Amino acid sequence: MRRCLASMLALATLAACDGGGHFVSTRLQTTYRHRFQFVSARVELVRVGADEPERTRDVTFPADAATDVELLTGRTLADFEGVPTGTYDVRVTLLDALGRAVDSGSTRVPIDANRSVLVGVSEACGLLSCPTGSDPPDATACSFGRCVAPSCFEDEDGCVEPECASDAECEGTSACTVGRCVGELCVAVPEDSLCPADAFCAGTEGCVTRPVEPTMDAGPADSDAGPLDSGVDSGTCTPSGCEDGDLCTAHACVDGACVTSPLCGGGDYCVAGACHPEPTFALQTSGAPGCIDLGVPHVSPDFAYRRVITGRAGRTAVQTNQQVSCAGDPPQDDPMVFPLGPSGRWEDTLETGAVTDCDFGLYGRWASYATVSGRRSNTVETVYFNSRCASVDTCTRARTYCPPCRGCSATEYCYASSRCAPSPTIRIDTASGPGCVDLGVPHSSPPAIVVRINGRPNATSTQVNERVSCGEPASDAEVRMLDGSGAVVDPLGPTGALSCDASGIYGRWLIRARVDGQLSAPAEVVYYNSGCTGIATCAAGRTACVP
Asked: CB under 8 Å, gap of 24 or more: what pairs does 228-233 form?
């Protein structure tokens, strides 16, 4: 059972083991208005933990009414072939005519097979950080303001409780939106007919003045024409002729020349003609800047820290922390989320007693930042030390300290030098009795085998196969991604009956799972063929070695 075992068992489907990666189709669902609020989209596949996207694609849309309808229900954006196995953030950014970001959304999914991934970008989704505290852990995607599992967009039913059966059960969210029942969910659909003739419906923002369409040449600037060709000869511009249809820029006719400037000032960003503050993050410590001594009590007014997060009003901030004094330690989203409210600000303080545990896992240097509506704040570094403990008694010493794992049980191992993770386990359910698979008959339901692996959540698992009846060395085989609960279930089948001379498979195998370099205890599987002399029983297959 080498790398192509899955293919050999699936002869009925003519599966091939080519190692060429996976096919990923991306779709966009948005209530933003095409042409008025955005003109194109950028799709990025970003492997979790990577700095740069694995794949990027820019997509434009035809300017027709059908496009608006498709964007409400989910329009295909881009297809990617040969995507390597891994966990990815599928990120979609809506862009205006000058290529600037209007808004963005992302969905985190494991890519371990061909996938269709839908990303929601809307005002309602911007208010959420999925999953929320009331959602299951796999609800990492947003659809019309609801957190759902990415698999809900792959023709699965029952992911969200139905809200409606007809339009009559739904209401709009502004004077120019009407309630529509889309996929059994109520959606506020913009209706331009409810706005004045010179305006369009911008969803929750109501009616917004329609961008002026330039009536003259708006092509690229001539070499001697100054900053940007406004469509008229130099010295003869008009205010309306300077308008380029971009809601996020300001235009003026100054001394006969068009002048374009950003609508928003420094520290702000623009979405559909509205300015919003970029997020900021601050941890103000009571002692030396950026240092917190956990060996002494901190009570008001001598707080351990004062945390202040600012950003777009009404949105939610998510704090991300990384113990940078431990090499390779991954960023972690804080389980708490912080509603910014109408003021666009969150502020709290931390009071603690003196910590007497010198093995406390918080000691070391941490980097933290906040994310609001997909926009990331500045990063703040904080060092936690303990003046009572020799190894971390100063802020300087603690800057390079990485706490060792402690308290790991017999079924755990030390991950990234600081965390206990569950040791991997593998179980293989077989169709022909415990540990036995008859390949002389077809298997459909139940499948020939079902592989069940458990281990560290969101880790990569590699299956290791060893045909001990032939004395063959162990070899790596299938690679699988564990989900957020640390599990994966992989049925192999349906399969047709194999011939007696099928090479490299009959015999007794020991199969293990490897996660983070940790090997599980082996599961044993014997492959035999009831129609073949010498390997007709499971007992005979245990000692078989068919080349």
From this structure: 228/258, 228/260, 230/257, 230/258, 232/258
Question: Quick one: 37 and 83 in the same domain?
Answer: yes
Contact in structure between 512 and 522 (CB atoms under 8 Å):
yes
Q: Summarize pLDDT for 299-335 with one digit per residue, the tens.
A: 888 889 999 999 998 888 999 988 888 876 777 777 6
Torsions phi, psi for 5 (to 5 deg):
-60, -40
Q: Is residue 14 part of a domain?
A: no
- 538 is a domain residue: yes
User: Is the Cβ–Cβ distance between 515 and 521 less than 8 Å?
Assistant: no
**Quick check: 298 and 350 in contact, CB under 8 A?**
yes
Gap between the Cα atoms of 78 and 58, Å rounded: 8
- Half-sphere exposure of residue 135: CA atoms within 13 angstroms, side-chain side: 20
- What mean pLDDT do residues 382-395 have? 93
Report the alpha-carbon distance of residue 158 to residue 185 in Å, rounded: 12
Residue 223: C-alpha distances to residues 220, 227, 367, 391, 398 (Å): 9, 9, 47, 65, 58
CATH number, position 479: 2.60.40.1930
Please determine, for residue 163, whether its predicted confidence score (pLDDT) is greater than 90: no
Torsion of CA 215, 219, 223, 229, to 10 degrees: 40
Same domain, 143 and 26: yes
Alpha-carbon distances, residue 45 vs 56, 83, 88, 320 (angstroms)? 7, 9, 6, 20
Does residue 12 lie in a domain region? no
pLDDT of residue 169: 84
According to the model, what pLDDT value does residue 215 have? 38
Domain count, the chain: 5
CB of 6 within 8 A of CB of 15? yes
Q: How far apart are CA 437 and CA 448, in angstroms?
A: 6
- Does 199 share its domain with 258? no
Q: Which domain holds residue 252?
A: 245-273
What is the C-alpha to C-alpha distance for residues 56 and 470, in angstroms, rounded to an integer? 47
What burial class does residue 175 get, using C-beta atoms within 10 Å of its C-beta: 0-12 exposed, 13-18 middle, 19+ buried?
A: exposed
Report which residue type is found at 311.
G
At 65 the pLDDT is 54
The letter for the amino acid at 135 is D
pLDDT at 296 (0 to 100):
93
Q: Which tens digit of pLDDT belongs to each residue from 479-537?
A: 899 998 999 999 987 788 999 988 789 999 999 999 988 999 999 999 999 999 999 99
Considering the domain boundaries, does residue 330 fall inside one? yes
Residues 199 and 147 in one domain: no
Mean pLDDT of 21-28: 88
Confidence grade of residue 156 (pLDDT, cut at 50, 70, 90): very low
How many angstroms separate the CA atoms of 84 and 45, rounded? 11
The tens digit of pLDDT for each residue in 405-431 reads: 766 788 888 876 667 889 999 999 998
Q: Are residues 107 and 26 in the same domain?
A: yes
* Residue 479 CB contacts under 8 Å (≥ 6 apart), including other chains: 85, 112, 460, 461, 462, 463
Q: Tell me, what's the pLDDT at 131?
A: 73
